[in-house]
Design goal:
The chain is mainly alpha-helical. It is built from five helices and two strands; from the N terminus they run αββαααα.
């Protein structure tokens, strides 16, 4: 059968994301424990066209994932920092850059592209995306 390769399930993707990024929430920095439950968080939300690719996912605690809702990743990063949380800006910058590179390689994602470009610009303006491609 032809077509697109199937993506691994959510549990497998969460394990891969945790192995790649470590066992802390990207937004608040809390370590995942029995009380701090990890979830996969889409950097570019699904409602904005974000794919369920590993490059578009980071590990976030259930609280942060739920509170973020559909807010943009850089807007939510700024809110987390205002709250005094230990948000991982370099990890977010890497995730955005990796997603942009994956879209370039794979193509498609027409809805996600302008949203992603706007988030990358906003992160660069913050000074947190100095290493991001232009």
């Amino acid at each position: 059968m032809g077509g697109m390769p199937t993506q691994p399930g959510r549990a497998v993707r969460l394990l891969a994301v945790r192995e790649r990024d470590g066992d802390t929430c990207v937004w608040c920095g809390r370590a995942f424990t029995g009380l701090v439950v990890p979830t996969t968080e889409h950097v570019v939300p699904r409602v904005k066209g974000g794919p369920s690719w590993l490059e578009n996912e980071v590990a976030a605690c259930r609280r942060c994932n739920g509170e973020r809702g559909h807010r943009g990743p850089v807007e939510w990063l700024e809110e987390c920092l205002r709250r005094g949380w230990d948000a991982d800006e370099p990890r977010l910058a890497r995730a955005l850059a990796d997603l942009a590179a994956a879209i370039e390689r794979r193509g498609g994602q027409r809805r996600a592209r302008p949203y992603l470009a706007a988030q990358l610009r906003r992160l660069r303006r913050r000074g947190g995306g100095a290493a991001l491609p232009a």
